Amino acid sequence: MTSTETLENLNSPDPAAATDSSNPAAPEGTPLMLALHQTALGGPEVLQLTELPRPAPGPGQILVAVHAAGLNPTDFKHRALSIFLPPPPLTLGWDVSGTVVETGFGVTLFRPGDEVFGMLPYPHGAGSHAEYVTGPARAFAAKPAGIDHVQAAALPLGALTAWQALVETADLRAGQRVLIHAAAGGVGHLAIQIAKERGAHVTGTASAPKHDFLRELGADVCIDHRSEDFTNTDERYDVVLDALGGETATRSVSVLRPGGVLVSLLPGDKDTQAKAEKAQVRAVILLVEHDQAGMRAVAELVDRGSLRPHVSGAFPLAEGARAHVLGETGRTTGKLVITVR
Question: 3-155+309-339 in CATH: which number?
Answer without folding.
Answer: 3.90.180.10
